[in-house]
Each structure stands twice: as C-alpha cells, then as structure tokens.
C-alpha cells in the first residue's frame, strides 16, 4: 500500500474582530474561524477562536455626595435669620460624569421677637455714664 498522507486543515479566514465587550473602559473582543475540511480527514490542532483586550475611553464617574448635615442653629437670637446645612463631595465627577449639585442649603428662621425697648435702655445707660 502506498503511504497515506494526512490532509492539512482547511480553515476559513478569520472573522472581523467583535465589538469590545464594554461600552467604556477595559474589555475583551474576539474573532473566529471555521474548520472547512471534514474532521475525519485528520486532526486539526489550529485555534478556532482568538481573544484580546480592548480599551475604550474611560467610563464617566458621577459626583457622589455625603448625606446632608443637620440644620444649624438660627444665626440670630431674636427676629429673622437663617439656618444652613451642608454636605461634602465624596467623589468628584470625572470623564464627563454628572456634575455635583449644591452642597449648601439655606433656609429662613424666625426666633422670638426682638424687644425694641432693649435698645432704648442701652442708650439711656450710655448717656447716664
């Protein structure tokens, strides 16, 4: 019998690379090819799929804030005034992420009425001195 020669693998060309597995940041992409010769004609040890890393622009990072603080005391001891509360920035926005909203809020407050006579008494006391 004449010597048998193995038939080489017949493979299709590689496909185009797939899209990156992520829409931003680091991911993977793949490509494939197919076996064209019948498997019974011989072993084919060629790879049929390849993968590689891909990198897209960084993912947007939105601003992150702490919870609001408690409202401050009213800034006056009588009459109209204001109170404030604050919150801190935990993460600054990056790569087009959402901007930080306000970090200070102010609201009106009203404490008991101021006594008008108190100012008059002080003036009389100064004059008496």
Automatic annotation (TrEMBL):
Which positions fall inside the Spondin-like TSP1 domain? 63-114
Q: Which InterPro entries match?
A: Spondin/Thrombospondin_T1, TSP1_rpt, TSP1_rpt_sf, TSP1_spondin_dom
Keywords from the UniProt entry: Disulfide bond, Glycoprotein, Signal
Keyword DNA-binding attributed: no
User: Quick one: a GO biological-process term for this protein?
Assistant: cell adhesion
Its Gene Ontology cellular component terms are: extracellular matrix
Pfam families under this entry?
A: TSP1_spondin, TSP_1
User: PANTHER family from the xrefs?
Assistant: SPONDIN, SPONDIN-1
Q: What is the protein name given in its UniProt record?
A: SPON1 protein
Organism (species): Sitta europaea (Eurasian nuthatch)
